[in-house]
């Protein structure tokens, strides 16, 4: 049923409601091997005039970050939080469950519909920002969360300087990523401005999703962007 339609109807028709393995507390509309989106190719999506359905998968970095937020709710409780590039809304929902006032930034109308449906499934309230917020300063948020947003170098190169600028006056910035090359070693762990490792998910022995090149959850990490000076090369 890969046909453009009302976004909410499209999400309902092409997904099942399921819990990601690392965050069983949260239920999301997700693609599975019994849904058309699971088998869709770039060509079939383009023919149907549909954007890539990133929102239909619980990506490894987002699961790791959501798990970290649920395990450490004091990071966001009572704070204004932005989930950047929210996709399914997984991280936003985790933050809302932890007691945050959450805005999900997502420009894809199908993702925005999925976030609304998923928030309702989990009995939380999430505001949705449909504009591109990169570059917005001063930030109206006290914490910014970003799961799996360094999958393309052009986006990573736009995003990380803005996140550093937000971190300078004390905004908490947390990233979740399975060590993609676009999140360079320099960004992850070297010098002032590095994204410093918080912990990793290996000890959990979590299942490793294999669809669409998702790195194993067992290798996904959470990183904190704490300083603003550029990384040394």
Structural class: alpha/beta
Broad shape: globular
- Quickly count the domains: 1
Question: Mind telling me which CATH architecture this is?
Answer: 3-Layer(aba) Sandwich
**Tally of extended strands?**
9
- Oligomer category: single chain
Radius of gyration: 17 Å
Order of helices and strands: HEEHHHEHEHEEHEHEE
Query: Given the structure, what is the number of helices?
Result: 8
Catalogue the unreliable spans: 184-222, 226-233
Q: CATH H-level name... which superfamily?
A: Vaccinia Virus protein VP39
Into which percentage range does the β-strand content fall?
A: 15-25%
Structural notes for this entry:
- There is one protein chain.
- The radius of gyration is 17 Å and the shape is globular.
- Helices cover 30% and strands 18% of the residues.
- The protein has helices at residues 7-13, 36-39, 42-47, 60-71, 90-97, 109-121, 153-167, 185-189; strands spanning 16-18, 28-30, 80-84, 101-105, 126-129, 143-147, 172-177, 195-200, 221-225.
- α1 (7-13) crosses α6 and α4 packs parallel to α5 (90-97).
- The protein has a single domain (58-225), classed as Vaccinia Virus protein VP39 (Rossmann fold, 3-Layer(aba) Sandwich).
- It has 233 residues and is of the alpha/beta class.
- It has a 7-stranded mixed sheet, with helices on both faces. It has a two-stranded antiparallel ribbon with strand order 1-2.
